[in-house]
Amino acid sequence: MIRVVRNRKSVQMRRMLACVCVAALFALLPGTASAERQANKSAFKGVALTVKPAEEPGKKKSAKVAKAFKADPAMRVIIEPAATVPGVDVVDGVQVPKDLNETGTESSGDEGDIPGDLVEAADDPFEGVNRVVFGFNQVVDRLVLEPSARIYRAVIPRPVRTGVTNVLNNLATPITLSNDILQGNPEAAANTIKRFMVNSTLGIGGIFDHATGLGEPLHREDFGQTLGTWGVGSGPYLVLPILGPSNPRDAGGMVVDTAVNPMTWILYDAPLWQKSIPVGTQIVVSREAILDDYENLRKNSPDLYASVRDLYAQKRQAEIANEAAGYNPGSGVNSLPPSALPQTLNPY
Predict the structure, then answer these.
(1) Would you state the pLDDT for residue 187?
(2) What is the reported pLDDT for 14?
(3) 14, 228, 314, 319: least CB-packed within 10 angstroms?
């Protein structure tokens, strides 16, 4: 009996030992297969599978490793241009304009002959205050100026509106003529005189613009432009209440032009309502001429203030350089929106 029990225990011990051996064998097989797969991959790449210890902090790389990453000047690819282009330099094989050359080479043009507005863009240090005034002007424009201009367009026929614009342009002749002379431009002065004589007689007081048909186109000058041709800088950008975009130079020019205008002295002692008639007419006429353009600008501009500021600067630059300002000078518009007032405070 005792012998049978011992035999059973011996069989059980053998079975348990066999199970432990089999389990240990299966446990070792995955690691072996994984090592074989890693060895196969390393063999495929042609590089032995090794583990490199992390480099100690602050320890410099060996000269061999640093040399491996050192750029070889001989390997640089430089594409030279096939021909030399006037006004273009070659820097490291790349064609760049002369004014962008790192050597600081100046262009052949003489900046001394260019008005200050065309060399440097006007800055806007008072942008915060200007935006507040601009917002106020927008409210005035929405409530008063734009509705008045739309009523004027709807009620007054186009031929009559054209005649009113021609009269206002003709009355501004003394301001344009005086600034033509101050700018030393005899051809422009002769054009202004011819236009005034023809339109005041054949045009019946300026109602009809016959001078343009005779080869004497309209041009407008003010003292702000004269100061610009003399080399006076525009100064910081300003937004004046009701008057709209301006700068110190143009604001001072408005005062001078107002003093030069004969209508200022003719209506000097007149009642306020009589003085306001010519000024109000100019406001409505100017605003009506830019109704569509300003409405498109207002809808499509992401920043209306910045758009008006840039347009005003471009317009004044073009006027100082006696170039086309991007609008019809015969329309009577003498300033870009939101200002609907004339460029001067002339009560004509």
Answers:
(1) 94
(2) 72
(3) 14
Query: What is the Cα–Cα distance from 170 to 197, expressed in whole angstroms?
Result: 10
In percent, the amount of the chain with pLDDT more than 70 equals 58
In this structure, the number of other CB atoms found within 10 A of the CB of residue 196 comes to 22
DSSP secondary structure code for residue 344 in this structure: S
Cβ-Cβ contacts under 8 Å for 152 (sequence gap 6 or more): 161, 284, 285, 288
Give per-residue pLDDT as tens, 186-230: 999 999 999 999 999 999 999 999 999 999 999 999 999 999 999
Q: Are 258 and 345 in contact (CB under 8 A)?
A: yes
How many other CB atoms are there within 10 angstroms of residue 274's CB atom?
Answer: 11
The verdict on pTM exceeding 0.70 is no
Runs of H (alpha helix) within the chain: 2-45, 63-68, 116-119, 127-140, 146-155, 158-171, 173-182, 186-201, 210-213, 223-229, 248-260, 262-266, 272-289, 291-300, 304-320
Which residue(s) pair with 240 in the sheet? 244
Q: How many CA atoms lie within 13 A of 69 on its CB side?
A: 5
| Residues across the chain | 348
- pLDDT tens profile 24-77: 555 555 444 444 444 444 444 444 444 455 555 544 444 444 444 454 555 544
**Which H or E run includes 95?**
strand 94-97
Cβ atoms of residues 218 and 166 within 8 Å: no
Residue 272, Cβ neighbours under 10 Å: how many?
7
Cβ-Cβ contacts under 8 Å for 124 (sequence gap 6 or more): 130, 236, 237, 309
Q: Are strands 244-246 and 94-97 parallel, antiparallel or unpaired?
A: unpaired
